[in-house]
Specification:
The protein is an alpha+beta fold. The protein has helices at residues 11-22, 28-35, 39-52, 63-66, 82-90, 116-126, 161-167, 185-191, 199-206, 210-223, 254-262, 288-296, and strands at 56-61, 71-77, 95-101, 106-111, 133-146, 226-231, 241-249, 267-273, 279-285, 305-318. The protein has twelve helices and ten strands. The strands form two sheets. The chain has an eight-stranded antiparallel beta barrel with strand order 2-4-3-10-7-9-8-5. The chain has a two-stranded antiparallel sheet with strand order 1-6. The chain is globular, with a radius of gyration of 20 Å. The chain starts with 10 loop residues before the first helix and ends in an 8-residue tail after the last strand.
């Protein structure tokens, strides 16, 4: 189980982050009751986490559940232009998890285009015409083993099962296809900026009744079309080293390797992908030595792994939102 080593956060901060990961819209009073502290303490800790830990709670559309393509881009460029290209990509609403790698000559970027036209405009339009872009490799994500609504903080095991149950939003998952309707766009426009926006704020933004807002948001979450995510700085928890792994597994072992990787404490994202490798993984570690320990230990012992390419991030430019604190 992961352990936190931090000069700025304590165990209550970790419990609060864990609670927000279970339900980012849970009221301070509900979180306080579950954690056994006062509402004022939770509100104060939350404000401090936002100020010093880079915490933001936002709503995201689950591209996988909505049947939308996602792509991981590897953009090789001239060293003196990589940061500018990364920052330009970071300003787009359809990108996330952007970092500089390979000695500052490669930009890694996750895209979540909502329509095929969005993808074509980026890959066939803007990027090829961008000066100093040397090569673009686009890897379509085929199957998610871990990530999205399943957050990395749960791997600390800070909450008990009873606490997790008490924090989960009410309502059962809805069977059938997840959909976002045109009428949902004003609602999501607010929640994608602030996932904890109040119901009166959502009512004013949508022009709908508060009861409609509550019902529609609950339906979107229950269907899996939308989930509430938490952005934070992993370095404040003691895990500043971030790397993307491009793993080739034997085809017959692809699923078993992906499932095993999802269970590793160090992995925050695991997906099967098209391209020369067939798995892409985001790993968080305490240090370069910790990254090596993972590569030579838990990963190295997996049957079916044939090849691993490791690309440590020199800098993270964007996680879920932008701008990132410098």
């Amino acid at each position: 189980m992961l352990t936190m080593e931090s000069d700025t956060l304590d165990h209550l901060d970790l419990l609060l982050l864990s609670a927000l990961e279970v339900d980012g819209r849970a009221s301070f009073s509900r979180i306080a009751a579950v954690l056994g502290v006062s509402d004022q303490t939770i509100a104060r800790r939350y404000r401090r986490l936002c100020e010093h830990g880079g915490v933001r709670v936002i709503a995201l559309r689950d591209a996988s559940r909505l049947g939308q393509d996602q792509w991981m881009l590897r953009i090789r460029c001239a060293p003196d232009s990589a940061l500018a290209i990364a920052e330009a990509l970071a300003r787009r609403p359809d990108t996330s998890w952007i970092g500089l790698a390979s000695g500052g000559t490669e930009v890694l970027c996750l895209t979540r285009p909502r329509t095929p036209g969005d993808h074509d405009e980026l890959l066939l339009g803007k990027l090829p015409r961008t000066p100093n872009v040397v090569e673009i490799r686009a890897h379509q994500l085929l199957h998610r083993f871990y990530g999205a609504a399943a957050g990395w903080i749960r791997k600390f095991g800070a909450l008990t099962e009873d606490q997790i149950t008490a924090l989960r939003p009410a309502g059962e998952p809805v069977p059938g296809a997840a959909r976002v309707e045109p009428e949902d766009e004003p609602l999501l426009a607010v929640l994608e900026r602030d996932g904890r926006a109040t119901y009166p704020e959502l009512q004013r933004a949508t022009g709908r009744s508060e009861s409609w807002v509550k019902r529609r948001l609950a339906a979107l979450r229950a269907s899996g079309a939308v989930y509430i995510d938490v952005e934070y700085q992993s370095e404040t928890l003691g895990y500043p080293t971030v790397a993307t792994l491009w793993i080739t597994a034997a085809p017959a072992a692809l699923h078993s390797v992906g499932e095993a990787l999802a269970g590793h404490e160090e992995t925050a994202w695991v997906s099967a992908t098209a391209g020369p490798s067939n798995l892409v993984v985001t790993v968080l570690a305490r240090s370069t030595a910790g990254l090596y320990g993972y590569l030579s230990g838990p990963l190295g012992s997996l049957d079916g792994v044939q090849h691993v390419e490791t690309t440590p991030f020199l800098r993270q430019v964007k996680k879920l939102t932008y701008p990132m604190p410098r």
